[in-house]
Structures are given as structure tokens and as C-alpha cells.
Amino acid sequence: MEFTLTNLFQKWLFSLGVEGEYILSMSSAMSFVLVLFLSLIVYEILNRIIIHNLKKVADKTTTEWDNILFEKKVFKRLSHMVPAIIIYFGAASSLESFPRTVSFIQSSAHLYMVISGILVIDAVINSLHQIYNTLSVSKNRTIKGYVQVLKIFVYVLGTGIVLSILLQKNLTTFFAGLGAMAAVIMLIFKDSILGLVAGVQLSANDMVRLGDWIQMDSRKADGTVTDISLNTVKVQNWDRTISTIPTYALVSESFTNWRGMEESEGRRIKRSVNIDMSSIHFLKEDEIKQLKKIQLIREYIIQRELEIEQYNRENEADISMPVNGRRLTNIGTFRKYIEEYLRHHPKINQNMTFLVRHLQPTDKGLPIEIYVFCSDKRWANYESIQADIFDHILSIIPHFGLRIYQVPSGDDIVRLGDVYRNAGAKNLLGIQ
Length: 432
Hints:
The protein has 432 residues and is of the alpha+beta class. The protein is 59% helix and 11% strand. A hairpin with a 4-residue loop joins strand 3 (232-237) and strand 4. Helix 2 (22-60) packs antiparallel against helix 5 (81-94) and helix 5 (81-94) packs antiparallel against helix 6 (99-133).
């Protein structure tokens, strides 16, 4: 006769004088309780001694990955599988006379092991993802979408195994039935499939990274990318609101990524002022004399005067007529002043595109555009520098005999009316 725990308890109960049909049930129950007690002891030893001591060792090491494994509870979840294994095999030896009970307990233990295994794999995936995020490459290549796809696969497979255990069906039969529902599955996971394809394209083409400043007007998003997942990309806008964009929308729709500006040596200033064209004229001698006092363009004016004088003399130009020969203009001198002012500005990058140019004249005057790059790319500083530049430009325009074009306001019309009324009153009184 084979020695088992059940036989041992039967002999002990028989020695106590227990007889009859209950001795088998009692010995089997006592044997199974002992198995349960053993599994509980093993679980406590694993958690309170082995895993606890391993945690102390991990805390003393210089590596980060072992701490991450404990943080994600990989070993904690793994310890749940050991009692289930003990119960699975212990039930067969302790309850061999009750095959239905053994089948139920083993199925339950098997189910518990599968669920624990899924949770262990989930924890391992989370740990590997976090370990990857500690690497420098993670800042340029996020794998969160791939991780989510892998988790979906694990949970779908795990759910299939659980259902096959509960329904007592073969796993291949279960998934074959799912194949017949492919259209429904495609509909359920439509966004996930589109997100996966889009995530591959975004990663392969390096279109978006965590921390990028993107602008997508169609989705009302303008801010920093804080998360890239399988289905969504989260953008924290500058007003601290959060915009959630479908991942596939970043492939199918247009958006602006400001990373190139942030990685370059300057941030573009592209702004213009509109000059009233009726104020543009040739400079007179007294105006030239006055403008020579401006240090930034004194040498320029002297040099230009010599060039113009030589040109007019060589071409025998009759300068009594303004259209003959060459002359200095207030708009050209003003444009040169802006160039010199920006050339001497400490916050303008002189090695990048540098333009001060005329744009097409319109009914709102002649636009003078400044197209330069600010070396300080921080938003607040950039805006302050840009504002200071145009504060100065708008303030010095009258010194060149120029006027800014501005649509007349209500006050302008009132003042103009006062002028006409005063002029009419003087005419009636015969005042010269």
C-alpha cells in the first residue's frame, strides 16, 4: 500500500477508536487542511523572509532595475503562484478518493495560477518599461504604445485560458471561435489598431517626442506633449488645460512641432510696421545734418553722401530737379538704422537669417518687416526682447520724418472736425 498523508491520518484516527464510513472523509479533510497550512507557511516564508531580505539587498545596490522590480511588485505577485502549485499537487494526494473534489480544487488552483501569471507578466512588462524610461534613448523614442499592445495580447491570451478552464474547452477551439468574430473584434479594437500603426509611424519618423511643443489648431492643442500612449497623445496647453488627441490624428492631420526651433540657435522674430507712404520723401540738408547726430548711422550717411555726390558729378545730374541723380531718402536711412540697431543688439543671433526689408505696399501703407532670430528662446524672455525692439522702433520713427499708418479712430475724426470748424469760422470772420 502506498504511503500517503491520508493513510497516515487514517491509522491515527483508527488508533483513537474512530471507525466507520467517516474515517476516510475525516482523514482526507485533515490531509487537505495540512496541505493548505503548508501552502500558507511557504507563502509567509517567501514574503516575510526571502523577499524581505532580497529587498534589503536591492536597496543597498547601486543599480536601479532591481528596485524597479520590487516597486512593481514582481516578486510579490510571483509568490502567489507557489501556494497554488502546492495546493494543485497536494489535492491529488490528499483527496484521491474524491475525484470530483480534486478536479474542482485543481481547476481553481489552475485558474489562480493563470491569473497570478498574468499579473506577474504585467508587472514584468511595467518594470521593463520603467527601466527603459531611465535610458537616454527613451526621451527620443517612447515605447508606451508597444507596451500597451503587448499587454492587450497578454490579457486577451490570459482571458482565453481562463475561459477555456471555466468552460472546459480546448484553447485552440476557443480562439477558433474568436476568428469567426474577426469583424466584431476589429470594430472593438479599431482605435487600438489605428493607434498602433500611427505609433509606429510617429516613432519611425521621429515626428513627436515627450516634451515636444506641438501646435494643432484643429484639436485646439498648443503646448507640451506629456504622454504618448496607444490610443491618445496628451498635450498640456500653455493655459494648463489638457488636450487629448487620438494618436492616429497626428498622422492623418497636420500639426506644427516646434522642436526644430527649440534645438536651433535662435527663435524667429518676424514682425512688420506699416509706414504711411505720404510721409516718405528725399532728405533735405537740414534733415541730413540732424540725422548725422545718430551714432549708429553717422558713418553710413557720410559714406552715402560721398557716393551720391560722386555719382551725380560723374553723370552731370541736374540736382535742382529732385528726379535727377541720386538722393538719400528718409525711408532708406530709417531701414539702415534698424539694421545697425539690430546688428548691435546683444540678444539677436547674427549668424542666422537677418533681414530688414520692404513688403508689398498695401492700402495700409508700406510694411517694413524685421526678420531676425532672438538668441534667447525662452518664451517670456523672447516676447520681452521682441517688445523692447519694437518699442524702440516705434519711438524713433518720427525722427526720420516718417509716420506710422494707423486707421483713424473716433478721436482722430473729432479732432479733424474741430480743425474744419475752426477754419470755417476764421473764413467767415475774414481772419487770415
